[in-house]
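Our preliminary data section would be incomplete without showing what the modeling component actually yields. Below, a chain of 331 amino acids is followed by its predicted structure, encoded as tokens that our downstream tools consume directly.
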Amino acid sequence: MQHPRHVPSCNTRAMCVQVYLVGTPIGNLGDISLRALQTLESCDVILAEDTRRATQLLSAYGIARRGKEVLSYHAHNAAARAPAVLERLAAGARVALVSDAGMPAVSDPGAELVAAMCDAQAGGRGVVNGSGGEGAVAAIAVPAAVPVVPVPGASAVLAALAASGFSAERSAFEFAGFLPAKRGERREALKVFASRSHPVVAFAPPHKLAAMLEDAAAELGEARRVVVARELTKRFEELWRGTLAEACEAFGDGARGEVTLVFDSAPAGTGEADGGGTVDDHALELLVRVALDGGEKVSALSRRIAKEAGVTRSRVYDLALTLQAEREEQA
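Predicted structure:
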């Protein structure tokens, strides 16, 4: 294919033996860089999270696969794949690592390989450790002379943050990756973000979006602003803005597609009141039980009862979850 070429920084093929971390589009094929195209065209081996998607990517840009190896490289086979990768590097191959979307090694496969190679360059042991699973290897030494080269590309994190409007007055932000799948662990993680003075960006599986928003509302406060960025750069892209209370209503049934959340920083001098209220535990439990008996959703009854009883939403929410779990166990 014809496109402008970047003049390589190396003078011989031997000097070009590198591992390239190639950023790929997160949805829109127009978001790939010329440098990424050049790298994919000139490399000998492509390590891909999904070989089918990698092959489709090459085809979309007219890059011939002839003469290239496209090898699977994901969380379940990274350690077992390491010997083959190091063998290619020792033979002088140029290796590119790609994920299904965005930058590899960030909430995607490849982080362990990159860490081992950087450690080797710094004079450390430079090993890829096995996970201990079936077919894994304990430790594979990596060559110290092979540098790791990032080839930047599209990022859902930066795209969502830039479009959120939350970073206008603050240059810092925090990336939390995927929030824990288990509710208790997720709530603990969210508690840490409650007093942050900068925006926090996180990924959310679409089928767990409703639960994550409910937990965020309980820990960060219903008034905290949030952006739900769905299907970024794709045909049905959506950037939803509002409070966490509004988000719980809007996405009570979950969502489709890939979701990135941006939580605004904690407003200075604001937060939920202590909220002890005048309602004792027994009376509050009775109110919650009646609401559950009537089929009211946890998120909705938490907001209503908290407002009516003068207590914090998190107090009602935690109680409602406990009572709901007891009912499920008895069913």
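Confidence is low (pLDDT under 50) at residues 1-9, 11-15, 131-139, 270-276. The first helix runs from residue 34 to 42. Preliminary results of this kind motivate Aim 1 of the renewal.
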